[in-house]
Amino acid sequence: MVSLVMPTWKPHASWFPEAVSSALEEDRCEIELIVVDDGNPEPVAALLSGIDDPRLEVIAIPHRGVGGARNAGIERASGEAIRFVDADDVVEPGSTAKLLELSGPDGAIGYGSTLVCDIDLRPEKTVGATVQGDALVECMLGNFFVYITGMLFPRRVIEAAGDFDTGFEANGDYDYVLRALEHAPVRGEDFVASRYRRHGASITGRQPAAEVKSRRALDKLFERRPDLRGTRVERQARSHFQLGAATRMLRAGQLGACARHLLAALRLAPLSAAPAAAKLLRAFPRQGARRLLVARRRWARPRR
Q1: Does 300 have pLDDT greater than 90?
Q2: How far is the C-alpha of 53 from the C-alpha of 42, rounded, in Å?
Q3: What residues does 192 pair with on adjacent strands?
C-alpha cells in the first residue's frame, strides 16, 4: 500500500478534480488517496462529488498550512510508503508503482523527474537528478534537486524524519527532504513522475525573492549534525545558498543585494563558488545596463 497525501487549500475548481483523478488512476500497486481539507472556507469535498472511489478519503482540519496538512495526512495514512502530491498538479500515470519499485526491499527513497508546465500543463522544462545512494551532501550543494512530489518515502523514513516544520512558508520541502536523506539513500531514474503546474498562486510565486531562502533549513541541519560544523562541506553548502540568493536578487533587479551575496559566497568557498560567480558577474552588467536604460526613459518623460 502506498498512501498519497494531498493537502488542499482554496483549490482551483477544475485543477483539483483533475489532480485527484490522476492520483486515483495509478495502477500496478495498491494505493489510498488522503485529501486534507486544510481549513478551507468551503469544504473541498463538494468539488469531488463526481468521484466515487473507496480509495479516496477526505479529512478536514483547522487551517495549518501545507506542512501541517501533510502531517495530518501522514497521521491518517496506513500505507507502507507515502508520496506527497499537490492539488494543482498531475500525477504521471504509473509513476507511483515505478517509485515503489525503485525504493526496493532496502527501503531507499525512490525518485523521478518533474515536468514543470504552464497553467495549461504545457511543458516548459524537466527537473531531475542523477544522484544514487547517499544524497545528503549532494542535496546541500545543490546537486540533488528533486521536487518532493516526484519522491516516495518508506514508512520508516517518514517516522525517522519526523513532522514537517510548520514554521516554513516556503522551503519547508527542502527542510523535510534534508531530514529524510539523513535516514535513507536515494535511488532514481530519468522518468517523469509528476507534472508541476506553474501559476501565480504557487508558494514560490507568492514569496518575494528576498524571502525564498534555505538558510534556516541549513541552520537546523548543522544543529543536528555537529560532526559537519566547521567543515568544508558546511562552507560549500552555505556558499551555495549565497549563490542562490545572489541569483534571485539579480533576477529581481536588486543589484546591491546580489553583489553582497556574491561576495559572501566567494569568501566561504572561493574555488567551488568561482564558476557560478563568474557566470553571475557576466550577467550583472547587462542587468544593470537594462535597468539604467529603463530608468532613463522614465526620467525623460515629460512631467505634467
Answers
A1: no
A2: 22
A3: 113
- 82-94 burial by CB neighbour count: b if 16+ within 10 A, else e? bbbbbbbbbbbee
**In angstroms, how far is CA 97 from the centroid of its own chain?**
21
Say which residues have a Cβ less than 8 Å from residue 252's Cβ, sequence separation at least 6. Answer: 208, 209, 210
Residues 57-80 pLDDT 10s? 999 999 999 999 999 999 999 999
Q: Which amino acid is at 155?
A: R
Three-state secondary structure call for residue 159 = helix
Sequence-separated (6 or more) residues with CB below 8 Å from residue 22: 90, 91, 92, 93
Q: Which residues contact 295 (CB under 8 A, 6 or more apart)?
A: none
Torsion of CA 273, 275, 277, 280, to 10 degrees: -150
Q: Which DSSP string do the residues of 19-72 spell out, in sequence order?
A: HHHHHHT--SS-EEEEEEEES-SS-GGGGGTT---TTEEEEEE---HHHHHHHH
Q: What whole-number percentage of the chain has pLDDT above 70?
A: 89
C-alpha cell at 236: 560549500
